[in-house]
Design a protein that fits this description.
Blueprint: H1 4-10, H2 32-53, H3 59-75, H4 88-102, H5 109-137, H6 141-144, H7 147-188, H8 194-217, H9 222-253, H10 261-279, H11 296-299, H12 301-322
Helix pairs in contact: 1-12, 2-4, 3-7, 4-5, 5-7, 7-8, 8-9, 8-12, 9-10, 10-12
């Protein structure tokens, strides 16, 4: 499955993981230098997250689309009647955002090298993309029968492939950092508290998104389904604990607080629907014709719709934790 589809939501949590509904943290004095370093690290990490979340559709997706539609058309000698590329407007903006984060001295080893490589690849792609975007928008292919597109296609495809590969490396590094921070918050939270169950919901939710990526890529794999069900059960257990703490605190204070259970239950419900659909064989329809050569997630619109709903409900859950109403 397209990794970007899950990282967008998974990274929405940022660093907002430490305080739970009704839990009070003690103030601990720390050396100024240590605080400044930690603050720089948080700022750098959040800039990386912002860069990742600015990518509404991945370069991997545009690469697959270009290979599926434009490459075959340009391989022939007939005049082309349509031509397009993607993400041109984002290339320079994203490279600047990555460079801005890299300019912050505090190192984040899991991400820095991948971000630097991603930015360099974007800079290589930039002039080729701008030239072909102007060509596509002005429909220059109607004037030269596609000559410029054919001449530049190989170089553009190579540069776009490199960007797609570096993009996935960036996501992997950022995802590893994100998961480590989430696990740290979960491990350090006092057991059987609202903060503990809140951190558990987010941590197990992130594990579930990784399992979902595997499941959507291989929807007929029993092991992928078993892993998805296992992490989903952990999410459900944490949700039950969180609901109990929130309900008890609401009863004690006399103030109503849903604690985001609407969004949590919608995410769990959508995940359970995916399990049912996999078991019912909804995603097992055999692809035909050209569809046979596409990745699994592009062979079935049902998979795409399910993944989009899954991603949306997960993002809503994380967003509710980041912006609580009580």
């Amino acid at each position: 499955m397209n990794t970007r589809m899950f990282l967008a939501a998974a990274l929405l949590g940022g660093t907002v993981l430490l305080a739970g509904c009704g839990d009070k943290s003690e103030k601990v004095s720390q050396p100024v230098a240590q605080v400044d370093t930690r603050q720089q690290e948080i700022e750098k990490y959040n800039q990386y997250v912002g860069a990742a979340n600015s990518i509404s559709e991945s370069f991997q997706t545009f690469l697959q689309r270009y290979q599926q539609y434009e490459v075959p058309a340009l391989a022939g000698k007939a005049p082309i009647t349509a031509f397009s590329i993607g993400n041109d407007i984002l290339i320079d903006r994203l490279s600047r955002a990555l460079d801005g984060a890299l300019a912050i001295d505090t190192p984040i080893p899991e991400v820095d090298q991948a971000a630097q490589a991603f930015s360099a690849a974007l800079k290589t792609l930039s002039p080729l993309s701008h030239e072909l975007q102007n060509y596509a928008t002005s429909k220059g292919y109607l004037s030269d029968n596609g000559e410029l597109a054919r001449r530049q296609s190989q170089a553009y495809l190579a540069a776009l492939t490199a960007v797609s590969e570096k993009e996935q490396g960036f996501y992997a590094g950022l995802g590893a950092r994100d998961l480590a921070l989430t696990k740290q918050a979960f491990d350090e939270a006092p057991k059987d508290t609202a903060a503990y169950y809140r951190a558990g919901l987010i941590y197990y939710g992130k594990l579930n998104t990784a399992d979902a990526e595997t499941l959507f890529a291989e929807p007929n794999d029993p092991q992928a389904l078993a892993a998805f069900e296992k992490s989903l059960a952990l999410v459900a257990d944490a949700a039950a604990g969180w609901n109990g703490k929130v309900s008890a605190q609401a009863a004690q204070s006399g103030k109503s607080c849903g604690g985001g259970m609407l969004e949590i239950n919608e995410f769990i419900g959508q995940s359970r629907s995916i399990v049912r659909d996999v078991k019912d064989g909804v995603y097992k329809r055999a692809p035909e014709g050209a569809m046979k050569n596409l990745p699994a997630h592009m062979q079935s619109s049902s998979i795409v719709r399910s993944a989009n709903r899954y991603n949306r409900t997960y993002g809503n859950m994380i967003n509710r934790f980041n912006h609580p109403t009580c």
